[in-house]
Amino acid sequence: MAEYSAFSLLANALKGNKDWKPAWRKPDPKASYDVIIIGGGGHGLATAYYLAKEHGITNVAVVEKGWLGSGNVGRNTTAVRSNYLLPANTRFYEHSMKLWENLSHELNYNVMFSQRGCLNLAHTPAQFDDYARRGNAMRHLGVDAELMTKTEIKRLIPALDISDSARFPVVGGLMQRRAGTARHDAVAWGYARGADRRGVDIIENCEVTGFLRDGDRISGVTTSRGDIRARKVAVAVAGSTGRVMQMAGIETMPIESHVLQAFVTESLKPFIDTVVTFGMGHFYMSQSDKGGLIYGGDIDGYNSYAQRGNLPVVDEVMSEMLALFPGLARVRMLRSWGGVCDMSMDGSPIITAGPLPGMYLNCGWCYGGFKATPASGWCFAWTIAKDQPHDLNAPFTLDRFHRGLVIDDKGQGANPRLH
Amino acid sequence: MLITCPYCGPRDVIEFTYQGDGNRERPDPASQNFEAWNAYVYDRLNPAGDHNEIWQHSGGCRAHLKVVRNTLTHEISSVAFARGDHGSAARHKAEDKA
Amino acid sequence: MSPRRADTGGRIDRLKTIRFTFDGTAYTGHAGDTLASALLAKGVTLYGRSFKYHRPRGLLTAGVEEPNALVTVLKGEVREPNIPATMVEIHDGLVAISQNRFPSLAWDINAVNQLGGKILSAGFYYKTFMGPVFGPLKGTRFWMFCEHFIRRAAGLGSAGSAKDPARYERMNAFCDVLVVGSGPAGLMATKAAADQGARVMLADLEPHFGGSANWSEETIDGAPAADWARRTVAQLAGRDNVRLLPRTTVWGYYDNNTLAALERVSDHKEHPGKGEPRHRYWAIRAKSVVLATGAFERPLIFPGNDRPGVMLAHAAERYANEFGVLPGERIALFTNNDSAYRAAVALKKAGAAVVAIADVRPELSPEMRKLAAEAEAEIFAGHAVVATEGGKALSGLKLQRFDLANGALIGDARSIHADCLLMSGGWSPTIHLASQAGAKAEWNAARQAFLPPKPTQSWIGAGAFTGSFSTAEAIAEGRAAGLAAAGGQSTPSMLPTVEAVPGDPDPAPVFEIRAKGKSFVDFQHDVTAEDVRLAHREGFVSVEHLKRYTTLGMATDQGKSSNVPGLAIMAEALGKPIPEVGTTRFRPPFAPVSIGSLAAERFGDLKPERLTPMHDWHLANGATMYSAGLWYRPMIYGLSGETVEQAYVREAKATRESAGIVDVSTLGKIAVQGPDAAAFLDRVYTNMFSTLAVGKARYGLMLREDGLAFDDGTTWRLGEQDFLMTTTTANAGKVMQHLEYFLDVIWPELKVHVTSVTDEWAGAAIGGPKARQILAACVTGTSVDNATLPFMGIVRGEISGVPVMICRLSFSGEMAFEVYSGAGHGTHVWKALVEAGKPFGLVTYGLEALGTMRIEKGHVTGAEIDGRTTARDLHLDWMLSKKKPFIGSAMMDREGLIASDRLELVGLIALDNRPLNGGAHIVEEVDEANPHDSIGHITACCYSPALGRHIALALVEGGKARHGTRAHVSDPLRNRFGPVEIVSNHFFDPDGSRMHG
Hints:
Chain A is of the alpha/beta class. In chain A, about 30% of the residues lie in helices and about 25% in strands. In chain A, helix 2 (about 40-55) crosses helix 10. The termini of chain A are far apart. The relative contact order of chain A is 0.18. Chain B has a single domain, classed as Folate-binding fold, CATH 3.30.2270. Chain B has helices at about 35-40, 90-95; strands at about 1-5, 10, 15-20, 45, 50-55, 65-70, 75-80. Chain B has a four-stranded antiparallel sheet, with no helix packed on it. In chain B, strands 1-2 form a two-stranded antiparallel ribbon. Classes of the chains: A alpha/beta (about 425), B alpha+beta (about 100), C alpha+beta (about 1000). Chain C: This is Sarcosine oxidase, alpha subunit family protein.
C-alpha cells in the first residue's frame, strides 16, 4: 500500500484523486486466528498494531461490533498528558507520551499530535502545594512539569479571568509543556491502517455474541458473522466491559459504566493555545485546529450505556467555563455528545492476562483512555504475546483491589463516580 | 431524568446522589469472610438493561431509594425506600393513608 | 424603496426605517427585517467566505439552517460570533461584521486556497505534515510549525475576552403539552390541546408564529394563511392556559420528557427593558410533546451550486412573501419536485422575471405546467443545471438534457442569463428532537427522506415533521396530535379548509448532477461530491466515517441541508440503498446555544459563599480571608507592614505565651441522637463511644469501607442518647452522607437520627496558658476550673447573657476550650471573649497560625488523611479498637495496606534553616540536575516559633524507622534542595503536659 506524503498527495491530485486505495481492507473473518481482539477502538487497534510490529504476531483479528473507532476514541476531548500523581500511573502515561511523540512517523499517518501544553489551574495556596507535589512527583520520574505564576498564566491565556474578584481566583498552575492534543479519529485510523498493512484482519460490523470454550479455556468467540477460534482472546471494549465479561460468565467486575458528556463550540479564530483545567470543579478545555473549543466536565454520575447524558452536567460545565472565561458568554455551544466510560474502583486501568485461561483483559480507563492508547496497546500486546505483564502494566492487575494495592490518584476509594 | 421520590414526588436527577449497585450485600460486621467483603466493596453488577440501584434524595428528603432503572434508556420502572419497612418515612405515609 | 424591495406585501413595516451597519457600511432596513432580508433588499450578494477555500458565498436559506451568511454581532467590546444573518432581527444601532476574511469580504487573500484544489481534498491533513525524522523539526515539531498557520487560517468569527454585561436567566417550567413549531400543524395542536383545558406551551424559533403560513400564500378558511395564523395566535394569546414563546428554540430533548429551550428575549432590541435578560433558558418538563417542527429544503448538488445568487427555492419565496424582497430580477429555478413551482409563481407575483424552470423529471403534471405558465416561465423538463457563471454574483447558468434513469447528461449545454438561481432537492423532515430522544430515523423511499420512527418518549408528531407536506394534512394531524397529547377525544367539528396549489410531495430521486466542476454538498465546510467519493475510495464508507473524514455535516449548521445529499452520494458509490449507509444520531443542541444562557444565573456567580457568623467582624478587624472550599476563613489578622509569616508567627507565639482565639464555626457538626446513638457511633468510629460518659468528649477516627482513613474529629456526649459529632470542614458533607447511608441502607434497625447542625452553631476555640483565666472572667453560670471542666469535659454556661456550651479540648496543644453558641449569637459571644481576653494579651489568630500549631503538635488534617493513607500510616493505630467490628475493620489489614514500604507520617526539620515548601519531595540523595527516587513528600510546613526552626510534616516510605536519620528535600519545581532531619511528627510537647495543664 502506498506511503502517504506531500509527494503522494500531489501525484494523486494530478490524477484527480482516483487512485487512492482503502486505508484498510474489509476482510471476511477467517475460521481461526492466533489472537482475536474484541473491540475495534483505539486500544484494540493499537494492541493489534503492536502485536504485529513488536512481537511478529500477525495472524490477528480485531472484531468490532459497529464501525471502527466508534467508541471513546471517537468521542473524547483529545487531551494527551502524563501529569499523574502516583508513580505507577505517571510511568505508564509517560511511556504513552513517548510513543505519541513519534506516532505520526511510526504510523505514516498524521495524528496531529500537538504538544501545546496542559495547564492545571490552582485556586488556593493549598491546591498550589498539591500541584507542586504532583509536579515534583513527575520530575522525580523524569517527566517534565513546571509551576506557573498568575502573570505567566495571563500571558499564555489572555482571555482567562485571573482577577482577585473571581469567585475562585487563580493563584498559579501546574504546566506540562509536552502534553497536548491529537486528532482522535486519526489515531484509530492510523493504527487500523498500520495493523492492516502488517496483515491484521480488521472486521467491522461483527458483534461478539459469546465465547467459545475448550474445557476451562476460552478458545474463541461466536459473532454475528460466525464462530471464530483463537488461541488467545483479548478484550478491549472499554464501556462495554461489563456486558462482554457477562458473556464469559463473569457477573461482577470492579467497573461501573458511566456516561460522560463532551461539548464543542462553533468554530472560532484562535482563542486558547493550550489545554486548561479548572481546579475548583471539573472543567477542561482546548481548541481544535478547526477552531472549535472542545470541553467537558464530570461524568453524569450514574450507570449508563445510553451515550447521552442529562442537563445538570451541561449547566455545571458551562457555568465553570464562564467562571474562567467570562468573554465566552455569547459564544455558542454547537454540539454535545456522550461516551460510555468504564469507571474502575480506583480510577486506574486494568491490563492483565486472565481472568479466565486464554483470556486477556484491558479495561477500567475511566475517562483517561484516549491518551493511554499507545501505551495501552503496547503493554497489552506485550502481555498477550508473553503471557505476563510488562513492568509498566504489572501494577494494573485485576486482583489489586482485593489485595489492597489500589492506585488511587484522587484518593476517593471504591466510588467510581468520584474518580 | 426524573426520579419519583416516594416521599417528595417526581424530582430532577440533580437533586439525587447516586450510590451505585443496590444488589450488593454487606457481610455481617464481624464476618472474617474476606472474599465476601471484597466482593461487597469492589465488585459491581453493571448490566445493560434494568439495574437495581441506590440513590439518595440528597437535595430533598435525604432518604435512600431503591431504584430500578434501565441503563440503556434511563427509564425508571420502580422506586422504593431503601429502608423498606424500617423506614420512618414509609411509616408516615402509611399513617397518612390510615 | 430599493429596486429589490416590493412596494407592498410581507410583514415588514415600511413606515419604520431602521439604521444599522454591516462591515462598517451604513444601511437601512425596515422593522420586521432580518439582517439577511435587509441586505438582500439593498442588492448585497456577498455575505461570507467558506471555511476551507474561502469561496465567496451568498444566502442559501432564510432561516436557522443558513450555512454561509454568518456574521459577528458587536455590542461594544462584546462579540457574538457566527450568527446566521437570517436569524438577526435588525434594530437601530446594530453593528454586524463579516468573518473569516482578510483584508475584506470582497478581497480575501486566503481565497488562494482554492488553487490547492485537489491537493486539499478530504483527509489530506492525515497524509502529510509528518515532517522529517531527524533534525530540528523532527517529532511533533514540523506538524506544530505547520499547525500554527493552519490554526490561524481556520476558524470563523472571533470570541472576545471582555465580560458580557448581559444577564441570563433560567426558568423551570411544567406543562401538559409542549408544542414545538408554530406552523399550521403546531397552531392547530396548540388550539386543540388548549381547548381541552390542558396547560400548553408553544415555542417557535422565529419571531412570528405561523411557520409556512407566513409565506405560503395559501388560503385557510377563506383568508390568507398568514391572516389565519395571526388570528389563531391572537386567540391563543388571550388564554391563560397557553404560554406563547416566540424566538424560542427548543434545542434539547432529554430523559423523561425534559426539554431545553433558548428564548432570545432582547437580542432584537436596541435597549433591553429594565432587568430584562438577554437570553432565557427554559427547562421544560412536559407531560406530552407535539413535534411540529416542519422540514428543511435540500439543495441540489451540481457544479457551481455555491455561487452567490444560488438559493433554496422556499427561501426566495420567504424573502418575497415575508419581507417583500426579491433575491434577483431574472430568476431561474432548478428542481426535482413540485414544491419549487409555487416559489416561481410567488416571485413572479412579487415582480421578478422567472426565466426558466429546469426540472430533472421528463414528465410534468398538467398542474405544474399551469403554474409555470402562471409564472410566465419557460419549462425545461428533463433538464439539469450543469454549471453556473459569474464571480461574486451569479450572471448565468448552463442547462443540459438529463436522463433521469441513469443520470447521464445528453446533448449540448445551453446558456441562460439569470442573476438568481433557485434550487429545490426535496425536503427533509426536521426530526432532530425525536432523534435526540433516542429514536432511530426510518428512510422513506417515496419521500426520499428520513421520517421519524416510533416515539421512545412521550411525543406525537404532526405536519411536515411526519413527512406530510401539505397544509391540509398539517392541520388535520396538528389537531389530532394536540387532542391526543392533551388526552382528549376527537371532536366532530370541521377542520379549517385549505386552498393550496397542488403538488406531489414525492421528489424524483435525484441528488446530484455529475458534471465537471466543484459541486458542494456541505457549503460551509467546502465538502464536495468528489470528497464524498474519495472517502468511499479510501474505505470511509460508514456514515460516521464519512462525516469524520470529510467533515461533512460538522459545520455550524450541523448538516441540516447537507446530510441527506451526502448520504445519497455515498449510497450511490457503494451501490447500496441509502438506509444501508445509515444516518447519524442527532445530538443536542438542535441549533447552537449561547453558553451564557446555559450558565444562566451562575454566570458571574459560580458557587455560593459560606460565611461564618463572625465573618463581618473578621473583615472589620484586619483579617485577610482565605477561601477554603465554599468557606471563607481568616488566614491572618495582619498588622500594618507585616508579612504573612510575621503575622502567623506573632499570632502563634502569643497564643503559646498567653492566649489566642480562632473561629472554628466551619467544622462540620452533626447531631447524632436516639436510643441506639452510642451503638451506632461504635460502628462508625474505630474507637469506643458507648463507654463515653455524658458530659465528656472524645477524639474519634473513621475509616472508609475499604479500610483507609476517612475523617477525624471530636464527638461530645451531651446526653445518654444525644451526641454532637464534629468533622473536618472539608468532609462535613461526605461524613453526613456516609452516616445517612449506613442508617438508611445497612442498619435501618438502628434507632438513630442524624441532623446536620453545622450552620446552627458558632464556634470559637480559645487556647493558651491564660485561656482558662479569660473564660473565668466572662463565663457565668458554671465554673471552668479543672474539677468542673477537666480535659475533654463539657459544661454549659453563659457568656454576656448568651447560653454557651464549652468543651475543653485542644488542637493547638495548649490548654484550650471550644465555645459553642447559637449561630445568631456568634459575634456577640466572640466579641465578649475578645473583650475579656484583652487584659490577658489574647490575640485573634487565623488559619496560618492554626496550621503552625497543629504542625508543631503533629496533628493530621486533610493533607495527611488524603484518601490514600491508613490509620497505621498516620500512627493512629492506637485508636483501632480490637473489641468490636467497625466500618473498615474487616478490610484494613489487607496485604497492600500493611506493607512495609508504605508512606508514613513523620516530622522534618530543615537543617539549612531555610523555609520548606508544601509539595516538596524527599530523597535520600540529592540530584538537582536529575531528580529521582522520591521517598515521600511534604504535606504541610511552617516556621515553628516554638522550636525556632523550619519544620514540616511529611509522608515518607518506611517513616518511623527513619526517625533520627538525614534526608533531603528535593523540590525541582521551585529549585529548593537541602538537608532535613526526619523526626517524630510530635515536635512540641509530645506528652501533652500543656493541654492537660
